[in-house]
Design brief:
Elements (H helix, E strand, L loop, with lengths): L5 E2 L5 H11 L8 H9 L3 E6 L3 E8 L2 E9 L8 H15 L4 E7 L3 H10 L2 E6 L9 E7 L2
Parallel strand pairs: 4-5
Antiparallel strand pairs: 1-2, 2-3, 3-4, 5-7, 6-7
């Protein structure tokens, strides 16, 4: 099936919240109001794959931060996350971004592998960053 990454807007908010809820434990899932608020903030853009994936990022000057990337369990291992990440990099470059960064749980092996394959490298660690007490790795990648 051809990948159909789209720019996310207000009409996508319910689908984005549903994808996030299917992808994360209930205490970590973002509700519709969180997505609606993020999408109207300056510098924030969202991408959605109707098959069940989303990415939200924020551009500030020449940096972009991946705020969240989620792929519904039944859609995983089909290149959706890779396509969303690639789309975000393209969008960010188009806005003059030189560096992209994100946080990922130390224990999230699948996400860490995705980011490593994309070219992200470890730039730091945030101890006990997540509600479960887990550390977050800060990963960066130059886009220029």
């Amino acid at each position: 099936m051809k990948q159909r990454i789209e720019r996310a807007g207000p009409a996508h908010v319910p689908a984005m919240a549903a994808i996030h809820a299917a992808s994360f434990p209930a205490r970590e899932a973002w509700a519709e109001d969180a997505f609606a608020l993020q999408l109207i903030m300056p510098g924030v853009f969202g991408l959605i794959d109707p098959r069940g994936g989303l990415l939200l990022a924020r551009v500030t000057v020449d940096e972009a931060e991946v705020l969240t990337l989620a792929v519904a369990p039944e859609t995983r291992r089909h290149g959706v996350a890779r396509a969303l990440l690639r789309g975000a990099m393209t969008e960010a470059k188009g806005q003059g971004v030189h560096t992209m960064f994100l946080e990922v749980a130390v224990g999230n092996a699948a996400a860490r592998a995705l980011y490593q394959q994309a070219g992200f490298i470890e730039a730091g660690r945030r101890p006990r960053y997540y509600a479960d007490g887990g550390d977050a790795l800060i990963l960066r990648m130059p886009l220029a």
